[in-house]
Amino acid sequence: MSVKAKLHYFNGRGRMETIRWLLAVAGVEFEEYFFETREELIKLQQSGVLLFQQVPLVEIDGMNMVQTRAILNYIAAKHNLYGKHLKERALIDMYVEATMDLNDLVMCHPMQPPEGREKNLALIVDKATNRYFPAYEKVILKDHGQDYLVGNQFSRADVQVPETILMMEEMKPDILAKFPLLQGFKARISNNPTIKKFLQPGSQRKSEIEEKMIPQVMKIF
Amino acid sequence: MSGKPKLTYFNGRGRMESVRWLLAAAGVEFEEVFLETREQYLKLIQDGDLLFDQVPLVDIDGMKMVQTRAILSYIAGKHNLYGKDLKERALYIDTYVEGTMDLMQMILTLPFSLPEAKEKNLPLIIEKAKNRYFPAYEKVLKQHCQGFLVGNQLSWADVHLLEAILMVEEKDPTVLSEFPLLQGFKTRISNMPTIKKFLQPGSQRKPQPDDKYVATVMKILKEAMYYSI
Q1: Do residues A105 and A185 both lie within one domain?
Q2: Tens digits of residue pLDDT in A171-209
Q3: Does the interface ipTM go beyond 0.90?
């Protein structure tokens, strides 16, 4: 199968990871170009393909797309992962926007100075367990009997919420202890064939950033 | 019940201002409930109205919507301000509003930063407006040549960009001096009937935040600003 998309980013999660998840789940094969130096990013900026001089950049369907949400919205809509109508889309948007808020906190965490890390971690865990996860637990409770978060149909919310759950579990393995329905949801979704494949070693899923990589990444940006 | 959307937020711009702009541009009348005390906010949470314990909250079409982008996307989609197809929506409108959102976010968080940070950040914001964002939109207008950012009719992207331009001009009135097409855009879009009405005194458009607004928000939310706004 020919490659359908090309991703330009550094070799790590950052803002590109959710895009990788969604492409993988949608069954879209993609290639990746990784920046290793600031010069490579500058070269791309000078080429004029980056509307706001920023990455992620995704080449897809003849377009150079930037801005994470625009890219995710496009992939989701094109691959029928965005609900059946406007109100379902609205619900999906509400759920995934919250995951992106939480992901942002996780993404910025390694940039905290060492003395601030413990406090920041506690803050993130607090937000996950007291604000976000209770909300999703309630959603699943309300629609009990349905396998998916919105409209009884697989959507990007069923990809982005598990993505965030897994990231939070890396920070605190028992974070789902008080959320039995989320545990069940996570287990069910992880068995979805394309997600299962993406979760296996050797996939294009990226691991947590290593401490020693942080200075190099910050130099690029 | 009036059937009008009902907006719940602080009595100021913050994250709700873009929603007010978009509803106004779409010619949709709306009601507002202003949070003035922490008790009001806690009651909203207790009543289960806030999915993630956060405002903005917009009661619209039987849904209690939260998350600013979700709200804006819904309004845009409902009122024909989201382009005519997927490409217009994603490649253009979504991309453009993300840029103006990033720019306006910097301005909206400014009053909540420490004084030394405020002094340092304002010039940085103006610099980003002049060197990153406005050149991009100037180029779009130059290439697209239709008077609007996308297609040949008003979209969410146009409303959002006008809002951003006016917000930056409040900080630096000369900011559009190198951008003739943006100047023309600003005049044209400001003169569209629904938007002209919103720009007049007495509309539901909110003024720039002042110390009283900042104090109210901090009193009500009682937590680190970055994480709650």
Answers
A1: yes
A2: 999 999 999 999 999 999 999 999 999 999 999 999 988
A3: yes
> For B6-79+200-221, which CATH superfamily applies?
Glutaredoxin (3.40.30.10)
Binary contact (A52, B67; C-beta < 8 A): no
B86/A94 CB distance under 8 A: no
Q: How many domains does chain A have?
A: 2
Q: A47: domain range?
A: 5-79+199-220
In angstroms, the separation between the Cα of residue B213 and the nearest Cα of chain A is 24
Indicate which CATH number applies to the domain containing A59: 3.40.30.10
CB-based contact A98 B51, cutoff 8 Å: yes
pLDDT in tens, B69-105: 999 999 999 999 999 999 999 999 999 999 999 999 9
Q: What string of H, E and C letters represents the secondary structure of chain A? A: CCCCEEEEEECCCCCCHHHHHHHHHCCCCEEEEEECCHHHHHHHHHHCCCCCCCCCEEEECCEEEECHHHHHHHHHHHCCCCCCCHHHHHHHHHHHHHHHHHHHHHHHHHHCCHHHHHHHHHHHHHHHHHHHHHHHHHHHHHCCCCCCCCCCCCCCHHHHHHHHHHHHHHHCCCCCCCCHHHHHHHHHHHCCHHHHHHCCCCCCCCCCCCHHHHHHHHHHC
pLDDT in tens, A81-95: 999 999 999 999 999
